[in-house]
Design a protein that fits this description.
This protein has about 325 residues and is an alpha/beta fold. The protein has helices at about 15-25, 40-45, 60-65, 85-90, 105-120, 120-130, 155-165, 180-185, 190-200, 220, 240-250, 290-305, and strands at about 1-5, 25-30, 50-55, 75, 95, 145-150, 170-175, 190, 200-205, 230, 255-260, 280, 315. The protein has 2 domains: about 1-100 and about 290-315, Rossmann fold (3-Layer(aba) Sandwich); about 105-280, NAD(P)-binding Rossmann-like Domain (Rossmann fold), CATH 3.40.50. It is built from 12 helices and 13 strands. The strands form 2 sheets. Strands 8-7-6-9-10-11-12 form a 7-stranded parallel beta sheet, with helices on both faces. A 6-stranded mixed beta sheet has the order 2-1-3-4-5-13. The longest helix has 19 residues, at about 290-305. The two termini are about 25 Å apart.
């Protein structure tokens, strides 16, 4: 039984108890460099029975999977599965698992941190002071403002609770609204158009499915108030990035806090880096020591359960 970790870069699994547990199962090959090149990934996985996916930028395409005849399980560290061709995996008899909720609290905290920082202009104030400035501009107050959530999964729910703690009115839209959940969280589901037209802060929390590609497109961006802020800690593909840049550049919205992007890592000289009303972080929202260890342990749990014939957290499986 060969377990391959093709993409532990930067290191997350190396040196952890989770790696020790993997080595007790059977042979482990761990690579500490990127596997974004499909040929590299296929070469690393060609003899693998199990793959442990660490980085979302590693893409398990149908072509890659075809080159891995022994592969039976892809255990993803994280919630997102948009980097795996789930249909191709199921067709080839490959089970795919993930670790839902492991980093929900961490991502929610990062979401609120971005929200506070971008609304309060903290990055601009810091830059000005480092250049001997003493800015005195007025910034919005959060209490009483409307936080609009697109999606109320595990992370969205945590953000809702934190938002209410800050005194925000929380409204939400999702594909499948849950009335009892809304009552427990103290939020209200509204129509999408109403949410977009009235939100002071819009926070994205959908899964990156084909249906959700560019969910926040040019037409929906046009509904936002010029005083609105956009926060995205979910997936870059949820937003039409070119349209967002245009809106930010022309100040048709007030600002954005972004942890995820359509291309990652963000290319050098990317237009977003030149916009003063944007706060950028490098897809690190879920990266805390606590959430890392919880997620890695769950990824190993999923392997052990699969080998026992009782797979857990399955997102795709053999047909």
């Amino acid at each position: 039984m060969l377990i391959v970790v093709p993409d532990d870069n930067p290191p997350a699994l190396a040196g952890t108890l989770a790696l020790e547990r993997l080595r007790k199962i059977d042979e482990v090959r761990l690579y500490d460099s990127d596997a974004t090149d499909p040929a590299v990934l296929a070469e690393r996985l060609k003899e693998a029975d199990i793959a442990v996916n660490i980085r979302g930028r590693t893409r398990f395409t149908a072509e890659v999977l075809q080159a891995c005849p022994q592969l039976k399980l892809i255990s993803i560290w994280g919630t997102g599965t948009d980097n795996v061709d789930l249909k191709a995996a199921a067709t080839r008899g490959i089970t795919v698992t993930n670790t839902p909720g492991a980093n929900a609290l961490a991502v929610a905290e990062h979401t609120v941190a971005l929200m506070l920082a971008v609304v309060k202009h903290l990055a601009q104030a810091d830059r000005a002071m480092r250049q001997d400035g003493w800015p005195r501009n007025l910034v919005p107050q959060l209490r009483g403002k409307r936080l609009g959530l697109i999606g109320t999964g595990l992370i969205g729910r945590e953000v809702a609770a934190m938002g209410r703690g800050l005194g925000l009115e929380v409204v939400a839209w999702t594909y499948h609204p849950n009335v009892s959940l809304a009552v427990s969280l103290g939020l209200r589901y509204v129509e999408l158009d109403e949410l977009l037209r009235t939100a002071d802060i819009l926070s994205m929390h959908l899964r990156a499915t084909p249906d959700a590609h560019h969910f926040l497109n040019r037409e929906r961006l046009a509904l936002l108030k010029p005083t609105a802020f956009v926060v995205n800690t979910a997936r870059g593909a949820l937003i039409d990035e070119a349209a967002l840049i245009e809106w930010l550049r022309e100040k048709r919205i007030a600002g954005a806090g972004l942890d995820v992007f359509e291309t990652e890592p963000l290319p050098a000289g990317h237009p977003l880096t030149a916009l003063p009303n944007v706060l950028l972080t490098p897809h690190c929202g879920g990266m805390t020591p606590d959430s890392n260890l919880i997620g890695l342990a769950m990824a190993v749990d999923n392997i052990e359960s699969f080998l026992k014939g009782t797979p857990t957290h399955v997102v795709a499986g053999p047909k």
